[in-house]
Amino acid sequence: MSENNESRRNFLKTAVAGAGAVATAAVTPQAAAAPAMQMDHGGAKLGAFFNPEEAAAIAAFTERLMPGGPGGPGGPGKPGATEAGVLNYIDLALAGAYSDMQEFYRHGLQQLDAYSRKTRSAAFTRLTPAQQDEIITALESGKADGFTWPSPRAFFETLRTHTMEGMFADPLYGGNKDFAGWRLVGFPGAQLQFSQTEMQSKAAYTGGAIVGLQATRKV
Prior knowledge:
Layout: H1 3-14, H2 19-22, H3 29-32, E1 38-39, E2 45-46, H4 52-65, H5 81-84, H6 86-95, H7 102-120, H8 129-140, H9 152-168, H10 180-185, H11 196-200, H12 213-216
Antiparallel strand pairs: 1-2
Helix pairs in contact: 6-9, 8-9
């Protein structure tokens, strides 16, 4: 992994010092209630907003930002963006609370594809992880040419932010599947109370089951 890619993963991990705030991100329950990934008659996955090609590009991009498995941010066997359902989170958000960003994403993905084909003669999803990292680094540094709107830097920053939200927001909003992100950083979720010892401890909370908003909201 490149040094820049390592810094991105470290940013996402350390940023969850504010996981409690991210857990109540500004994605509305209405957005979370949008249909999850569906199967069409041909067997291709269709989401609430993304078409299959767009979904594949977002899945690949976010997995490079927050890779799981061996060598992932938390060590071997730890979840990444794919396991946490970050794609589903972004897809649902763009169909709901972030609907004003639909054209931003569409233009950004078109420019990403054009830049990938120009520099590597292949779509972003067909590149090796190392090649994908090089392209993401070019976006992060603002050096990817051919981008007008959004700028390469703006597209990178937005995807990084939404990847973090998809990893660490409450599962009610479509990401953080099976509390993957919270387990990664030891965030306990919506516990009713903590002992004084637990409040003062710097270790990951292990005193009880992780609870999300879906289980605690009133019917």
